[in-house]
Amino acid sequence: MTLNSLSDSDLWALIVPGDYRAFTVLYERHWLKLYKTAQKYIRDNEACEEIVHDLFVTLWNRRCYLNILDFNHYLKAATRYQVYAHLKRAKTSQIIYCEELFEDIGSYELNQGQEKMLYTELEQQLTEQLRSLPERCREIFLLSRKEHLSNMEIAERLSISKRSVENQITAALKHLRYHLKDIALIVFILTITAS
Fold it and tell me: Cα–Cα distances in Å, from 75 out to 87, 149, 163?
């Protein structure tokens, strides 16, 4: 039996312990479809290639931790997340298919175990990165995001200028974006809650 005749699940069973040939078969089976998915949102061929490449690098690097039940849904949703992260990194103001992107992300269903694991992992990464911020920066960021205070309210509470508050929040968001590249959606949510 050749690797090409195996199902995605059977290939994945070989990939988890490190079979690169099985991974290559999975890549060749799905890359074009994922590339076309990325092209729906981004009209830059090079960026689409990079997105698909990054997705598969992440898949390989996290193979021991992932429990993928449906490869088509998982890879399609992961591609959309990568597209979103790319657009966010590029600070693209023109997101043509934004509504469709979020509809598709919302339609991707994880089982409860996967959802809980993902949430726990994201929460741990976020907490760890918040701890690594300077104390004053972390305090201002948490007042803004957790207590939902305005920049002016924070400035008054801490007896500092509003501009200092804005600078500290900007620094915190920059730090989180850099260190939490894989969870850009959380950073996006944190960013829009301040608006």
Answer: 18, 38, 42
94-152: per-residue pLDDT in tens? 434 444 444 444 444 445 555 566 566 667 777 888 888 899 988 998 898 888 888 89
- Give the span between the Cα atoms of 55 and 125, in whole angstroms: 19
CB atoms within 10 A of CB 185: 16
Cβ partners under 8 Å of residue 184, min gap 6 = 81, 84, 85, 88, 89, 177
Residue 18, classed as helix, strand or coil, is coil
Q: CA dihedral in degrees (125, 130, 132, 137; nearest 10)?
A: 160
User: Could you give the CA distance from residue 125 to residue 139 in angstroms, rounded to a whole number?
Assistant: 18
CA distance 150 to 20: 51
One-letter amino acid of 72: N
Q: With beta carbons less than 8 A apart as the criterion, state whether 22 and 59 touch.
A: no
Enter the DSSP assignment of 5: G
Question: CB burial class (10 A; 0-12, 13-18, 19+) of residue 82?
Answer: buried
Residue found under tokens 């990939």? 15
pLDDT attached to residue 104: 44
